[in-house]
Amino acid sequence: VDVSDRDATPGTAPEVRLRKTERRDIPWMVEMTCDEELVGSFNWPGERRDRAEVAADLEQRFAADRLAGRQTGRLVAELTDGTPIGDVSWRTDKWGPSERSRCYSIGIALLPPFRGRGYGVTAQRLLIDHLFERDPELNRVQADTAIDNYAEQKALARAGMTEEGVVRGAEFRAGAFHDHVLFGIVRAEWEAGRGRP
Ligand SMILES: CC(C)(COP(=O)(O)OP(=O)(O)OC[C@H]1O[C@@H](n2cnc3c(N)ncnc32)[C@H](O)[C@@H]1OP(=O)(O)O)[C@@H](O)C(=O)NCCC(=O)NCCS
Predict the structure, then answer these.
(1) Does 151 sit in the ligand 1 pocket, CB within 6 Å?
(2) Looking at residues 172-187, what average pLDDT do you find?
(3) What is the CB-side half-sphere exposure of residue 34 using CA atoms within 13 A?
(4) What is this structure's pTM?
(5) Which end of the chain is more exposed for a tag (fewer CB within 10 A), N or C?
């Protein structure tokens, strides 16, 4: 995949859209999982993963639901000229036993050339819109990120999320536990246009 800098000009309005995964995305998704440099320190678990295994897993999930299931899934973020810049993802979490206590936790990983240009805000905002729109019963979308991942914290706040607190010892990564900051947006805020450009 071309991960060159074209059309990623700082200062211009980020023209990003989300789409379902295509089979041609699988090779760069494998690299985004297995190449420590591409993954970056906040998403690198600390252990190498086998490329063939990761590819087989992605192929299997692609065949099942194009990696966009109801419980968990991901969409590709791309520039409007079709250049993939990374992906956004969701998983279902629940704050209580009732069905309506479920929410989505979202995540994002941009390829290195497309970080630091504001695309992360737009891509996450589009995902928040998509999740609320497709599920009228959904009341909450949340995200958490490492306490020292300032770029993601700023991006989440700009995408309309409120910082809600610190979750201590949350993530085991690279041999140690890390605190995370929890962010969330509820339906009433989303309907009021919070974070919408
Ligand atoms: C985190 C990520 C999604 C943010 O998206 P992005 O498009 O790069 O973010 P932005 O360009 O909007 O930058 C957000 C802000 O953080 C700031 N920032 C970036 N790196 C920073 C750092 N190390 N310290 C402080 N602020 C930082 C930027 O300057 C910007 O603020 P400003 O506009 O006031 O200058 C993206 O960088 C990424 O995919 N990183 C790798 C994977 C990752 O960390 N994912 C999240 C894991 S939970």
Answers:
(1) yes
(2) 96
(3) 15
(4) 0.92
(5) C
CA of 128 to the centre of ligand 1 (A): 18
pLDDT of 62-104, one tens digit each? 999 999 999 999 999 999 999 999 999 999 999 999 999 999 9
Say yes or no: CB of residue 113 within 6 Å of ligand 1.
Answer: no
**Residue 116 CB less than 6 A away from ligand 1:** yes
The ligand 1 atom at the shortest distance from the C-alpha of residue 151 is 16
Tokens 């497709």 map to which residue? 134
* Angle subtended by helix axes 26-34 and 51-65, to nearest 10: 130
CA of 24 to the centre of ligand 1 (A): 27
d(CA 145, CA 43): 10
Atom of ligand 1 lying closest to residue 14 CA: 7
114 CB less than 6 Å from ligand 1?
A: no
Residue 187 φ then ψ, to 5°: -55, -40
Query: SS3 of 92, please?
Result: strand
What would the two tokens of residue 70 be?
């109801």
Answer for the pair 138, 169: CB distance below 8 angstroms, yes or no.
Answer: no
How many residues appear in the chain?
197
Q: Residue 197's pLDDT is what? A: 77
